[in-house]
């Protein structure tokens, strides 16, 4: 066995061993642990902030904000598991006197699956990396986590891992509840996904990376689920009345959204779809002006910048595409946003114009009428989000378009911008393939915990041997579906 | 395009077209439709019963019972969608005054995914075939269904399809909401799973069949989920005190369970695990006596019988295996159950002894002590069910064994037999791989509807344009998670 494979084997075996203890700890204890991780991350103080800045070029305000989001996510999962109803306890009370056969007593709830492998994301060095949403949700569910750190921010990963390890010690949990594996190449990630003790995988990143993991996992002797969030172009459809009345406001909000964080978000609005009607020329002018006025931002690295320039240029140099405005590279590594335009017909003919350009870029697709807007939307692949810019009165007559947008996305926004993902129970961050590998789950918000659990049913078990969530007296005071009605009442 | 491919294409396009209408019909209307299907099945009267008997050799009482279960399932899904809370509405109310950024209004609920391909099962010609659990749950969710009929009961399939079609007409639904495809070979099934309009697959049957579908679906341009329920050996662990005190009762119940329906159930107890201690010899004698006294039953077909005899013989002729008792084939196509025994050490050494023998067969694994019982359980693959035969006082000291059993199964029974699957909200029929392709879902009980839906989130939509489940006034009176609390209250 090679050294890398051996060390992966060691951490996975430690994780499996830790699972035997960790799966039994109470929601209260897990909540304490998650909150402590957040506290220890804050305790890393300015060293963490400066390390992230150094490794990612992100501005300080964003890094501080992202740290807040990361700690906030940990606390939200802490609240969720402390309250306890997320386990979806379902009880069908037995009836020994039922004819012709007695009715068994059936009690079902969600249980953790085992060690989860998490791949740190490049574009969220804190909120979707070592102690990010995937880790928080897997730990909250009761699973040990092994993180493959993103090679772009190894020092950040080490620091955050040290915070988790402090929280493990403080809570007297087994060492193997968490491990960080760092590796410049792809080998350790591959061994982690292939290891028999791995039970699920969380990933945020490129389509190629995500699909490779899905393939690896499906080829295992025991296939395991991979939750790959692979980004999308997040179409924004601007209807006639909105265009006519609000073009200026829409243009400035869209350019700000495209430019935010140098466009390095999975919800970057990379595709604008509108109709050549009243206000259209003014809208294009406004886009152009906003781009020319936009301040540049640094991308994560010279490599990310290079890819962006190549990909954006490939679109803009396409014979059917016209550049609307293109911010200059004002200093090394600093880009300003760019927007280009193409006719609906040409867009639909060229599948590669449908691909995401990672960075502050958006493509404006120009349609002749609403019918063509629908054709364009129908031609799209699955998306994390879709946005509709419309006046109230034109919504009711566009139900078919709304249907089409719903079919294509996980989250449909009205008159907003897709960046700025709220972390809450109602958030859906996961759309039809290829935006995500499994559209039935979300990677943002407390619903993310559902990725790493499965139901188990106890039949005819004596009350005292059941998990507390299923006991008659409902000692944890959780919501339960008892004989098909939601209640907190005891039985 | 070949004729088969063309006809598959036609039904799938009709299903996709029907989806545009069907996805919008109310829970009340879907409930009416599902109940009408059940009524039309009953209206088929004795013709259906006799056709099933002719095609499957099942005794009349079982066929009538299975028809009752099938209609009961349809009615349960009807109740579920009429009540409406299954859509899991989650609402995080917006707050325009939140600092530093306004909080968006987020409202999420489950929506149907699109046409579902269902493979009829051989061993449940009604309850898991054309109008069985997979079809009922997919239709209840709002998806059109295309069934690939099982080649063993084509006339039954045609009759049940005609009942569904009558219900479609009665409810004025699009023709394409349901279609039956019949084919002796595997071609049409393959084209159905590969068709771009197919969004999910339901299957109950052999491991080979299920895994082939999983592979096909994962190789599509847009991979889709396959819910394959592939059976298991359903281990029954008998602890010392239970053996000593109840050996006679346990033996008679187990043999009855093995023999029920000629063992042609996916929950057939194909593996018994116990300790060579007080009562063991008496238990083996009781098994033997019960088998010798058992009445035979017909298997589905001479082909199924042949496979059973070959597979059972292969196990019984293994050098480490001893036959306890083996019922004779009393008349052509009629078998009686057989039980053989093997030591724990030999069982663990021979992986093929872990495989299911489809039919009235069970293998008794003999352990030296509880430690060895745990080793045997740890060596097992994923199972639909696991059963523990134990006295209350010995349960508390065997928490580790219970943990191991939970890890291996979807449903854990105490002092029962795994056959006789209750259809209810708390049922879990689906276990870790390879019992099922996705252990996070159940194929029996109303929870089965969750396989064919995905969440969508509406951000900042005006009330009147939201689906009713998400509107402020809660006009459908469903349970909703509003700002993290379950309630039926309006907002």
UniProtKB/TrEMBL annotation, chains A, B:
InterPro entries per record? Ald_DH/histidinol_DH, Ald_DH_C, Ald_DH_N, Aldehyde_DH_dom, Aldehyde_DH_Superfamily, ALDH_KGSADH
- Does this UniProt record's set of keywords contain Nuclease? no
Q: Which Pfam families match?
A: Aldedh
Q: Which organism is it from?
A: Carboxylicivirga linearis
The superkingdom listed in its UniProt entry is Bacteria
The UniProt keywords, alphabetically, are: Oxidoreductase
Please verify whether the record's keywords include Chloroplast.
no
Protein name listed in UniProt: Aldehyde dehydrogenase (NADP(+))
Q: Where is the Aldehyde dehydrogenase domain?
A: 4-422
Show the taxonomic lineage: Bacteria, Pseudomonadati, Bacteroidota, Bacteroidia, Marinilabiliales
């Amino acid at each position: 066995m090679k050294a890398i494979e051996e060390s992966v084997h060691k951490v996975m075996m430690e994780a499996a061993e830790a699972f035997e203890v960790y799966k039994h700890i109470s929601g209260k204890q897990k909540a304490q642990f998650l909150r402590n991780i957040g506290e220890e991350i804050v305790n890393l103080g300015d060293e963490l902030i400066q390390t992230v800045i150094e490794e990612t070029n992100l501005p300080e305000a964003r890094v501080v904000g992202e740290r807040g989001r990361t700690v906030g996510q940990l606390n939200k999962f802490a609240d969720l598991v402390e309250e306890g109803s997320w386990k979806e306890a379902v009880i069908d009370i037995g009836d020994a006197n039922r004819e012709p056969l007695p009715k068994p007593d059936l009690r079902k709830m969600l249980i953790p699956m085992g060690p989860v492998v998490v791949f740190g994301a490049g574009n969220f060095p804190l909120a979707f990396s070592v102690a990010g949403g995937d880790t928080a949700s897997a730990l909250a569910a009761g699973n040990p986590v092994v993180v493959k750190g993103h090679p772009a921010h190894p020092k950040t990963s080490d620091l955050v891992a040290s915070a988790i390890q402090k929280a493990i010690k403080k809570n007297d949990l087994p060492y193997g509840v968490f491990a960080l594996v760092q590796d410049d190449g792809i080998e350790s990630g591959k061994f982690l996904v292939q290891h028999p003790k791995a039970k699920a995988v969380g990933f945020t990143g490129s389509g190629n990376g995500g699909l490779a993991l899905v393939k690896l996992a499906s080829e295992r002797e025991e296939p395991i689920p991979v939750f790959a969030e692979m980004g999308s172009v997040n179409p924004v459809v601007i209807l006639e009345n909105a265009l006519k009345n609000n073009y200026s406001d829409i243009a400035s909000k869209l350019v700000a959204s495209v430019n935010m964080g140098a466009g390095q978000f999975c919800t970057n609005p990379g595709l604008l779809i509108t109709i050549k009607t009243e206000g259209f020329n003014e809208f294009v002018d406004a886009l152009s002006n906003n781009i020319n006025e936009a301040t540049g931002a640094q991308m994560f690295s010279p490599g990310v910048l290079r890819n962006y320039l190549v990909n954006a240029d490939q679109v803009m140099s396409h014979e059917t595409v016209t550049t609307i405005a293109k911010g200059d590279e004002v200093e090394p590594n600093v880009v300003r946003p760019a927007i280009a335009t193409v006719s609906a017909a040409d867009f639909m003919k060229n599948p590669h114009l449908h691909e995401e350009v990672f960075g502050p870029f958006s493509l404006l697709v120009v349609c002749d009428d609403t019918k063509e807007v629908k054709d364009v939307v129908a031609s799209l692949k699955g998306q994390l989000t879709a946005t509709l810019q419309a006046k109230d009165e034109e919504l009711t007559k566009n139900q078919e378009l709304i249907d089409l947008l719903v079919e294509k996305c996980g989250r449909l926004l009205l008159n907003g911008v897709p960046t700025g993902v709220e972390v809450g129970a109602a958030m859906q961050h996961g759309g039809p393939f290829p935006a995500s590998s499994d559209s039935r789950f979300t990677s943002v918000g407390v619903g993310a915990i559902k990725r790493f659990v499965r139901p188990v049913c106890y039949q005819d078990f004596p009350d005292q041997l059941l998990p507390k969530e299923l006991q008659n007296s409902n000692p944890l005071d959780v919501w339960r579906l008892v004989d098909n009605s939601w209640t907190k009442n005891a039985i």
